[in-house]
Write the structure tokens for this entry.
Amino acid sequence: MAMSSYEVVRRAIEFQTPDRLPVRFPLLGIDDTFGVAWNNKGVGDRAKRQDYDWFGCLWERTEMSNMGQVKGHPLEDLSKADSYQWPDPNNPLFYEGMEERFEGSEGKYIMTGIGFFLFERMHMLHGFQNTLTDLYAERQSMEWLADKVVEYNLGIMENIHARFPGQIHGFSFTDDWGTELSTFIRPKMWNEFFKPRYKILFDSMHAKGWHVWMHSCGKVNEIIEPLIEIGCNVINLQQPRALGIHEIGERYRGRICFESLCDIQHTLPFKSDDEIREEAQLLLAEWAVPEGGFILSDYGDGEAIGVPPAKKQVMLDAFLEADPWRRVAAGR
Amino acid sequence: MSFAEAIYDAILNGDMAACEQATHAALASGIPAGDVLNEAMIPAMAEVGRLFEENEYYVPELLIAARAMKAGLAILKPLLVATGVEPKGKVVVGTVKGDLHDIGKNLVAIMVEGAGYEVIDLGVDVPPERFVRTAIEEGAQVIGLSALLTTTMPSMKATVEALQEAGVHGPIKIMIGGAPVTQRYADEIGADGYGRDAAEAARLVAQLVGR
């Protein structure tokens, strides 16, 4: 009997040999996971050119509703920190209606999460350049800020777990850590400042029975090792070319599960169908191991990267064609 | 330690107070403001750029170094104006139409300013005509375009075309950069240069301006 979606994803993450490639591709009708969102107003109202999220960060958008960035930082001036009203993770409104969102999740791998988790939330609150500068200049203030964000995130996780114990399998979050060339900050500083705080968060997720799923853009090669050390289970990487497909495979395959796809900057928008197929095969060959370690995941905002569904279909077909586990299962 | 060494070290260490102190000391000892800028501050920022490219420095180190330099430069500026020391050139920078990402653009502005040029930062979501109009009005020699999204890259091409239509592509050069941008793309659209990071962008400005 074929494994359930849940089982396929779990086995890929835990390196226990799924019977096929796990896929997260709702646009094309295949999704082994099922998202159950809480009422996070992470980016404000997308219909508005300007709007505030629940932290009071001001989002600005272009005419395209999916193009936005925080331009107003409520904790830009940390001398006002005492009067800042943090959102209350115990606010029941955050979780209202969440129960109904489990409908249709039978057999699936169920996920929830927080966008803009720690570093991203810090710089949305305090400003990007301010945050990076103050990691040197105002270290104590940055420690306070980071700890407050950790406290908030732990509160959200506790509330979700208390309401739905044993019903959620994975917790995903985003923190973009890289430019095209390196991490924003030196890995030593990341290890000293951020790693212990992520560990607290990851330990809390694991204690609830959740896998840890992290997304980061950019060339984050140097922080994958410490992420593995503190228990990150799945890392979502969407720019394999910037990272270096061979290097990442050589250093990390079999030790963390990759959630990925063909490069969203250089391959999907610009390359031919054949080149997309080649990269799909290469990714499975370099990043997966016989026991698992790879989940195909779509980049949801095709409009932002200029990739039409037809191109994505080529990629999906290529991954399914090259699926190493289905081939093995078929041969059993 | 010479004045130049003291300022150089202060900038490399990102020590704003030390940079201010050393700048005051240099001026008090009779060293011209232009020499302080050209012999200490600009070489220090060039070294910061080199260290950034070598992954010895990361974004925070670059930012605190630039902050230290700016503190020193603020002391020099009135004297530079009074003594007729001009910036090496003028550069208009911005993130192209449809794109709001500004981190890369801001780093480029910091490094170009640190190399001794005046930077006019138009911000984000800047239409082609505004780049061209500002560059003409301000007498800039270079326009620097940034884009993070593949979908906003065509606006770079549109800006090159707008510059050509205005008949000033030549006297005014265009350089481009950003995550999905490549030298090949720069060649394709007729841009005058591509910088892979902020330090390279500052060197490129020097090449394009010729000083």
